Amino acid sequence: KEKNIKAIFFVTKPYIEGNAKLVKRMKKEGHLVGNHTSTHPRLGECNTDKIRSELKSVEKCMKKKTGYKLDKFVRPPEGNYSELALKTMQDMGYTTVLWSLAWYDYNPADQPTTDYVVGRFKSYYHKGMIPLLHAISKADTNALPKIIKYMKSKKYEFKTLDTIKIKNILITLEDVYNILSEMLEIDRIIY
């Protein structure tokens, strides 16, 4: 907030129900609030009706609890999707958003250090980067001022997804393997 940087927060129905005031504040402060499904299922394993139900449930909860409409962006839980899921979400007016920089920060009991988080940005920043930070991560929260300062020193701007042109990009499994291998410092992925 103090740096006047806007973000997108992908929320589940239980998150909205338990944090309605915070979600309302997100919208009041100009942030985007996107859909992360109602029950966090692996969308690639769901049929059309289940996918629609998951997304609609969050939309209704958002409007009821905050008075605001959900922004039409969706982040599939675990990044799991299928062609059917992508088509269904697109038919519902959603833009599907994945990330291009992430680390294991989603377990409050097993957090990386602040220096590790900053180091990930310094090592892997790139044009068009969409980092995935979890709201429950104290390391991410503590790292943000340093990350913002560093990225600004590299002449990067912070933008929300509704202000940029999102292109449909086709990448191969080999591309994904190469990116993940480098980011996760592993030498083999089975796919």
User: Tell me, what's the shape?
Assistant: globular
User: Biggest β-sheet: count, sense, barrel?
Assistant: 2 strands, parallel
Give start-end ranges of low-pLDDT stretches. Answer: 187-191
Distance between the termini: 40 Å
H/E topology pattern = EHHEHEHEHHH
- SS summary, helix count: 7
Q: Give the mean pLDDT.
A: 87
Which class best fits the helix and strand makeup?
A: mainly alpha
Rg estimate, integer Å: 17 Å
Percent in helix? 40-55%
Beta-strand share of residues: 5-15%
Number of beta-strand segments: 4
The main sheet orders its strands as 1-2
List the defining traits of the structure above.
191 residues; mainly alpha; two-stranded parallel ribbon; 7 helices
